[in-house]
Design goal:
The chain is an all-alpha fold and 86 residues long. 65% of the residues lie in helices and 0% in strands. The longest helix has 37 residues. The structure holds zinc ion.
């Protein structure tokens, strides 16, 4: 007679297990996507290769070398904005 409730518990555990596995896979995919986006060279038709796309300030050499199109300040604003929408 224990079989019914036992099976029910097993099934519930499976569902939770699958759900948490999906959650982990989803989170990993998000992290990978963010990391890929962060490493990918940024391009923009309006970027002049010298100054920040948003504020027009001269770009630090290391930002240009990393193929960024915005200064760290403007980039952080965008990242914050993206996090709010995430
Ligand atoms: Zn800027």
């Amino acid at each position: 007679m224990i079989s019914t409730s036992y099976d029910e518990n097993e099934r519930t555990a499976d569902v939770i297990d699958i759900a948490s596995r999906n959650e982990i896979a989803h989170t990993n995919a998000l992290i990978n996507a963010r990391r890929d986006a962060a490493n990918k060279p940024q391009i923009h038709p309006d970027f002049d290769g010298k100054t920040c796309l948003d504020c027009g300030e001269d770009m630090p050499v290391e930002r240009l070398a990393a193929h960024r199109i915005r200064c760290t300040h403007c980039e952080s604003i965008i990242e914050k904005r993206n996090q709010m929408h995430a």
